[in-house]
Design a protein that fits this description.
Elements: H1 3-54, H2 91-115, E1 120-124, E2 127-132, E3 136-143, E4 148-153, E5 157-166, E6 178-183, E7 188-189, H3 190-198, H4 203-206
Antiparallel strand pairs: 1-2, 2-3, 3-4, 4-5, 5-6, 6-7
Length: 207
Amino acid sequence: MSRVNILRISRLANRNVLLTSQRCQVPAARALSTKAILAIAVANKSYISGSVRNFSCSQASPKGIYPETDNPPAKTLEPEAKPQEPTELTIEEYHEAADTCIDRLVATFEELQEAREDVDVEYSAGVLTLIFPPIGTYVINKQPPNKQIWLSSPISGPKRYDWVVSGEAQNQKEGGGQGKWVYIRDGSTLNEMLEKEIGVDLTEVID
């Protein structure tokens, strides 16, 4: 046999040995990979189970700032003030309350007119007009159909005031409450509006 043939046969033999070795290693590597994956999965499952067991959903108890206030009482919401409602009046009661208010306003405004030359007051046919520079002109009049007093202001515009009696519901005898002319939308009184815009305290006049 020639030397060339011998070398060729030797190369083929080495190649077969190498292929056989690789084929044997592949199943072993696959088996090793499968075992490693299973081991990791088991470890993760154990960790997750332990974490779930240690997790607590218990509610924290309220603590105060000081030791003696471990369980502070829950805050109570203050009741909102109920909106005021007009007091039911007969037409005679309305005229009495409205006339008393306007007559006293006329007297007070006339005192302002005497103290200031630029102030002008006119009362005619149930309509009271006050010219009060530099603010402007106020018009106040009765509205019997609605049992209201209407007012037109150069600052705040038109407003309608209802007679509201407060105090009788608080264990007071009938007729013992205090009545005021109130703008129902915001709860302000006729006296408060005039005092704010004109700067004159009319409490004694209105009340």
